[in-house]
């Protein structure tokens, strides 16, 4: 065999033998003595393993990167990069992003040379040449079983991690569904009431302003009766989107029920709250939702909304329920005054 051919890493598959569940596993033999490589390969061949060969440290590392063998049989004494140094590199890169777990059996012609060092660096076993082939076969089988168990454990952990991530994702979805109005995508009433309790407590603790807005679409029943409930749903979604875009990220907007919406505006005093309400009211008044009739006739339907707003701290509003009632009273005052307007609670 030419020297160049001998130095190339090569893969040699032998006929299936009595390796059982380990048949077909890949063993990388690393030794600068071709005769010893052949001796080891022939002794293990009846087990049905696949073999790769390398004749020095750099070839061994290349073979590991290319094929990820299941076991490495490696001579300690090799020119240049020796077996102990290669073992150090392999074990330093044993994570899932590196080589993974690969058992290493070190081989040496000297009784004690490097044994302690090799084992301390993570070599999984150690053999002194010349060794009995039955002993080698038994140790190889033991290490391959360890590799199978480790691979199984890694795969099970990967599956468990994937399952846990999927479970967490579904929990997040369920939590979002439990807090969200299905039609508009806004928070639902239950979620809003939780946030109201939290924000009111924070406002009282720090004496910071908190405004609450109640909004109702004017003549919504007439819209449903005239154009049908599917169009009414379109109107609700359009109003929800319009109101949402006129509020800040920190503001909490929810569908409170039917055609009624509610918003919390943290750190917002009465003057600024009134400005926000007027901005939302004007945006809704500028909406034109297109209705398509049964014969394809198109009609733009104009909308308006009435709003009530109240703010704490306020001498006469000492609870979250009182704040809610004050904003609701403002909403009814706006409707009573002719709709499409804002009414603000005055202490």
From TrEMBL:
One of its GO terms (molecular function) is diguanylate cyclase activity. GO terms for biological process: cell adhesion involved in single-species biofilm formation; negative regulation of bacterial-type flagellum-dependent cell motility; phosphorelay signal transduction system. InterPro entries: CheY-like_superfamily, Diguanylate_Cyclase, GGDEF_dom, Nucleotide_cyclase, Rev_trsase/Diguanyl_cyclase, Sig_transdc_resp-reg_receiver. Residues 208-347 form the GGDEF domain. It catalyses: 2 GTP = 3',3'-c-di-GMP + 2 diphosphate. Residues 1-25 are annotated as: Disordered. Its EC number is 2.7.7.65. Residues 146-180 form a coiled coil. The keyword Coiled coil applies. Pfam families: GGDEF, Response_reg. The modification 4-aspartylphosphate is found at residue 75. PANTHER family: DIGUANYLATE CYCLASE DGCM-RELATED (PTHR45138:SF9), REGULATORY COMPONENTS OF SENSORY TRANSDUCTION SYSTEM (PTHR45138). It comes from Myxococcus stipitatus (strain DSM 14675 / JCM 12634 / Mx s8). This is diguanylate cyclase. It is an enzyme of class 2 (transferase). Residues 1-14 have a biased composition (Basic and acidic residues).
